[in-house]
Amino acid sequence: MSLRHAIRTASARSAGVIGAAALTLVAGATVTAHAESYQPTVLYTQSNDDAAQGGNTILAFRAQSDHVIPFASFATGGDGTGSALGSQGALTLADSGQRLIAVNAASDAVSAFAVEADGSLRLLDTAPSGGSGPISVTAWGRLVEVLNAGDSSVSGLWLDGGGLHPLTAADATASLSAGASSPEQVSFTPDGRRLVVTEKGSSTIDTFTVDASGRLGSAVTTPATGAAPYGFGFDSRGDPVVSDAAGGPGGTSAVTTYKVEGVASA
Question: What are the chain's domains?
């Protein structure tokens, strides 16, 4: 069988400090993005508030040398679930830090903001996420991909000066693998050629090819070496480093590293 790509386990280990970080990711309802291009440094997270609480907002903090100071909140124009979102990457910076994209899990929508020089946000647009229950978002150049937990799909949008525009091509949306359960995060690989999705419930990881127009290949599924793969990032070689919400010794969490690679025809 010929595969375009796959994930191969490179190593797995448990560690107290990393395990604690993984538990924090599991418990958290929101995530934080860091606007490195602006002074002072600004941190963003989202409230995930539902309609009864006034709707979803982005909360902004200015980072000082030894503490952070809340300074503003910005309505997304959509609604959160009003409870723990249970995901990683619910907002992301794009366009060299000049745009911020956030999911609205209860509105099936994604919001785009312009990031001003002082770190303030200006809402540009709120667009459909291409599925139901969006929980995680990633960007590569002008291409934005959203993970929809409600229907287990990944869907693409274009980002321009005016906001977000859903891709209409049939292959701009792809389903996660059969049996995928409790998806947590979607992210482009550092080269922008693939998407990686972790699925905690089924302990699997899906990868998709993605081209410059946003066309997605079918999911290629790898059973996770660690239990309950959750949030992840990439190391200096471009390899995914995944926090496992379970599976470490004595009931602790763990971390596993993988390598995304091509597979020759058999």
Answer: 3-263 (2.130.10.10)
